[in-house]
């Protein structure tokens, strides 16, 4: 059975399935004080992980290429005092790798949650985050709603609240993106602290008031700051396009990952904007149409 396509039915005792969302970049990212952070932009694009435990020899069997997911299962078993338990892992995920869409973060969070559930334990989101960070830098998709998360050390984990209704047209112009790119540029963020703090303030207000417009303004300000730290491919063109279609803003990923056009979902213009984006950017490798989601790991029966 393919590691990217499986059926979660027929669970036996000692087995569980969980899923976690990918992202369309981040609504904000940067450094405030001494803490690096991001506000992930979770979307309806999920990694689904099945973990089945056994009383056989210890060890975790996972598909090729999912060694970090296996490591997350091992560390979860150890944290719960079950290091001698064996486990097998299957991963089903349509999320592209290395494109600023949180594929690895979603895999890790879903695997950790499923491992806990297979042992009869529902792990708190903050615990899932701590275990995931012990494997690699991780986006805050394990926290419900929208959240500010220190994706490098976990020093900040702040739940902002449920997102306002928003759609996103994502543009992938190619190129590789991951948290290592962000980490190598930490020293450059000092000149952007004030703008980053302003962007966060707008996003917090937008979440509190249910305002897509305020979230979009904050995300755009954050994207501009990120573009000064590391130039983002085609950001100026995407901003011009967003203005032309009446979008509420834009957002960017880490490095040169996917770039998003943010829309107020109540205006019901997602499909038409998606079609216009395909015409406006025929050289884009992929154009996506997403809905902004609350973060958090979902348990599957």
Task: Classify the secondary structure makeup into a structural class.
Answer: alpha+beta
**Series of secondary-structure elements, N-terminal to C-terminal:** EEEHEHHEEEHHHHEEHEE
Within the CATH hierarchy, at the fold level, what is the topology? Ribosomal Protein S5, domain 2
What number of domains? Answer: 1
Average pLDDT over all residues: 89
Main β-sheet description? 7 strands, mixed
Number of strands: 11
Query: Hey, roughly how much beta strand do the residues contain?
Result: 25-35%
Count, helices: 8
Label the CATH architecture. 2-Layer Sandwich
Q: For the record, what CATH class applies?
A: Alpha Beta
The percent range for helix content is 25-40%
N- to C-terminal distance: 20 Å
- The whole-angstrom Rg is 19 Å
Shape: globular
Low-confidence segments, ≥5 residues, pLDDT <50?
Answer: 1-11
How does this model look, in words?
There is one protein chain. The protein has 301 residues and is of the alpha+beta class. The protein has one domain (15-300): 2-Layer Sandwich (Ribosomal Protein S5, domain 2), CATH 3.30.230.120. The chain has eight helices and eleven strands. The protein has helices at 67-79, 103-118, 125-133, 179-183, 193-209, 212-229, 235-244, 270-280; strands spanning 15-32, 35-54, 59-61, 86-92, 146-149, 157-161, 166-172, 249-251, 259-264, 286-291, 298-300. The strands form two sheets. Strands 1, 2, 3, 4, 5, 6 and 11 form a seven-stranded mixed beta sheet that branches. The protein has a four-stranded antiparallel beta sheet with strand order 8-9-7-10. β1 and β2 (35-54) form a beta hairpin. α1 packs parallel to α2 (103-118) and α5 runs antiparallel to α6. It is globular. The protein starts with 14 loop residues before the first strand and ends with a strand.
